[in-house]
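Practice problem 4.
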């Protein structure tokens, strides 16, 4: 056996020559890949552990980065139970304004949404129709953004519109709100911000 073959075998490919120290005889022994010695555990310092915690993750990294860059007021609460006088509850509806369930029914009970009004400002709420297709929803979101831009004194809390009864995914709806990034008076759901993350100027 050549020196090269013996060297490769010692790495785990076949057999390797070993010498019996007692008898002085050279023998061939099987070397398996599973015989590779285990690597010792790496002991991390407290500083390294803290750095690991600060690294962005797929689920919460964008949210943390955004919170550090801007005010947390740009992230809409998951459960909106009450509003300040200048706040507006933004919810998904249908064009007919039949607020029979979900956030629409909640807006009618709590924040002045009007039965039969499927879009626009009403009471302390703003309706965006989501049941008539993506293109119509996109147009309605555009009108909402224009309205919010024209009313900087009001703070708009956007719910996860289109992601409930309408059946859309967050990753499909969130990009429609891309132009809200520049509007400081619009707060979006945290998972919308996760989708919009690549558009943020970090």
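Answer key:
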């Amino acid at each position: 056996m050549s020196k090269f073959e013996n060297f490769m075998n010692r790495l785990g490919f076949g057999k390797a020559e070993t010498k019996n120290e007692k008898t002085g005889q050279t023998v061939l022994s099987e070397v398996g890949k599973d015989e590779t010695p285990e690597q010792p555990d790496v002991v991390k310092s407290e500083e390294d552990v803290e750095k690991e915690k600060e690294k962005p993750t797929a689920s919460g990294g964008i949210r943390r980065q955004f919170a550090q860059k801007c005010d947390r007021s740009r992230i809409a609460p998951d459960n909106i139970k009450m509003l300040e006088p200048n706040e507006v509850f933004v919810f998904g509806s249908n064009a007919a304004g039949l607020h029979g369930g979900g956030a629409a029914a909640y807006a009618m009970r709590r924040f002045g949404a009007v039965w039969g009004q499927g879009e626009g400002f009403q009471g302390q709420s703003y309706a965006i129709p989501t049941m008539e297709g993506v293109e119509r929803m996109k147009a309605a979101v555009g009108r909402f953004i224009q309205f919010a831009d024209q009313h900087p004194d009001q703070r708009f809390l956007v719910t996860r519109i289109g992601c409930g009864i309408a059946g859309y995914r967050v990753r499909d709806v969130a990009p429609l709100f891309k132009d809200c990034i520049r509007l400081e008076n619009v707060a979006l759901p945290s998972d919308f911000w996760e989708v919009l993350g690549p558009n943020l100027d970090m």
